[in-house]
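Before relying on records like the one below, remember that each one covers exactly one chain. Contacts with other chains, cofactors or solvent are not represented anywhere in the record.
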Amino acid sequence: VQLVESGGGLVQPGGSLRLSCAASGFNNRWSVMSWYRQTPGKEREFVATIAWSSGNTNYADSVRGRFTISRDNAKNMMYLQMTSLKSEDTGVYYCTVPGLYWGQGTQVTVSS
C-alpha cells in the first residue's frame, strides 16, 4: 500500500492549490480517507475527511468553506481543493487512511 501526495507548492495569500493523493494497493474495506497537516510549531492536525462510498465529508473549522475534499473512486484518487489560502495554512499536508497508512506529505507554503 502506498499513498503519494502531490500538488504542493508556494502560493500567495488568497491563492489556490489543489492537492492530490494517489492510493496504490487500494482496499475496498477502507471506509474513509483524510487529509491532515502539520504546521510549523504545531502537532499534526485534522483537515478534512471523506467517506469513500457515500462521499460524505467533514472539515476542520479552520478550513470549512475554503477547502473541498473529493475523491475519484475509479482512479483511487483523493483531492483537496484549497482556496482563499492564508499564511496559517502553511505546512506539510498528508494523505491518510486513518489508523493504517500515511503518505510522505507535500509542502504547502502560503507567502507573499
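The radius of gyration is 13 Å.
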